[in-house]
Amino acid sequence: MRHRLAVMVAATMTLVLVAFIVPLALVVRRVTEMQAVSRAVEEAQSLSVLVATSDPETLRLGMARANASTTHPLTVFLPDGTVVGEPAPLSPAVRLAARGESFSVATASGREIVVAVQGLPGGTAVIRSFVSDAEMTRGATRVAVLLTLVGLGLLLIGVLVADRLAVSLVRPIRQLARLSHRLAAGDLDARAPASHISEVDAVALSLHHLADRIQHLLDAEREYAADLSHRLRTPLTALRLEAASLRDPDEAARIEHQIVTLDHALTRVIENMRLGDSATDTAETSADAARVVGTRTGFWAVLADDQQRPMEVSVPPGPVPVGIGAADLAACVDALLGNVFAHTPDGTPFAVRLEAVDGGGAVLVIEDSGPGPQSDDGTRRGVSGAGSSGLGLDIARRAATASGGTLTFERGPAGGTRVTVVLGGPPT
GO molecular function terms here (predicted)? Predict the structure, then answer.
């Protein structure tokens, strides 16, 4: 913007200065020519009395003094053909002036002035003066150069003033840009200083109000999520009591383990809501994918057996390190397997395959033989073609992205749904 303002001012001033200086230089040149011709005419006319009243010798002396004091060569053509003064050719203008006319005429190298002196005994004498082009333009070139220098000086001053003005406009705009970047980075306490430019200050005030509103909404969202998570502890406590009353110790231990896992997840939600972005600083950054996937498939195997679903699990012995925490990876696997159970009928076979990647990372593939995907883009948050919340695949996608990987949602060879999660390796 600063450069554009300077260019715009320079272009505008250049047009104005050219429109002013060029005509002025032409006028000066024209005035200089007219003054030179006028002086030559006056000098020639001043010799008329001398030519009309002097004898030949006196005329020669007078012409010699006149030529010595002027820059224009003066010549007198007498009626008898005698030429007095500076030698000059008998031009057509002189012949025409001998008929009693006085005038000036342009030539290839200047301007010829002829003055007729009538009343002489032998006829009409002609006084000739010549003004060269150099004489007519003397001083005009210097004036044109001076005008050009003045114009360049004014142009430089104008550009400097425009640049200072542009800086005063650009600086607060850049401060607004930095403010927006800080707000986008999560610094909602950032503020822009007053610029004393009403329009810019209005934008800054709007950004300040936006930051306050975002902060208010974030605080309300965190409080609501934390409160909701805290309320869930009551039914969790009831479930723990129900599990303790089961007669089968193994079943009671399994349910108790799931209750503890859910309780840890709720505690993590509360901490994340309270701490905000700083919570990610203490989050796990790596996990053994083989152990996590093996544990979660073991949990879902009980429900698969209950619904008579053939379940194929292929997990390497491990460890298979990936760049995501165990809790997030478990949530990813649970979300994908939960979709299989929620969107396919009982008895539908499915497979879970985990493969290690050379150099770190893994590929997790979950594929079923159900009716296939009901949406073209099941990974969009809140979008589902099967009437669910549409958050499951988004959880898996965010887990893959957090590890530096990707998620692919497509129709498998058997017509069902295949989800491929590429997990990046742990940070070095």
Answer: ATP binding; phosphorelay sensor kinase activity
